[in-house]
Amino acid sequence: xxxSDVDLQxxxxxxxxxxxxxxxxxxxxxxxECGPLCHYMHSEYGRxxxxxxxxxxxxxxxxxLQTHVSTARAVTATEMSYVTANQFRCAxxxxxxxAARAAAAADWEFDRLRSRTVNTARKRxxxxxxxSLLLVLSHLNATEVREPVVVHDMIQSGFVxxxxxxxxxxxxxxxxxxxRLRLIAAEDAGLRIIDLDRLKRFADSAETG
Length: 209
Fold this sequence. Notes:
Layout: E1 10-13, E2 18-20, E3 29-34, E4 37-42, E5 48-54, E6 59-60, E7 71-74, E8 78-83, H1 85-94, H2 96-119, H3 126-143, E9 150-152, H4 159-164, H5 168-180, E10 184-187, E11 190-193, H6 196-204
Antiparallel strand pairs: 1-8, 2-7, 3-6, 3-8, 4-5, 4-7, 9-11, 10-11
């Protein structure tokens, strides 16, 4: 019998049932075994922007952000099997198509974060926006099997101002604030996140500036 119950190994979805949606926390990864899913985003104009159709053999649920910015919905009755982090890493190393999908996911999730950040520029401080950017880059590092707490020196360039829509002065002040709070530290390789959990709490805060 088809149901949405999740056990340790499998998930079953009925026709039209949502696997995850915007705002859900990134949790388990699954491989589609039977039945495709439609993976899409809601545009600011209320339309659906289809990202891809996910077919049997494809893995779904990955991305660099802590929460999903998209929705995956079953096109037919669908069965999926749980994929561990180690299995996903091995698959990334051996499946060029999956690696391309993972890179694309990082791109459009990052673009969505940038758009959301720019739209809230008057409500959020440059330090908050920089903290959010560092968390994204940390997740990208982890996805690419690099040290997640070290963000290389591209963060020191115009990359920050371009992505977050802030001035050089604001970027410098934001760096100073996060260092003063002992959330990050400068080193030869770039920036080191001293306390990832505290940085997450800072980025989740509702402080304005």
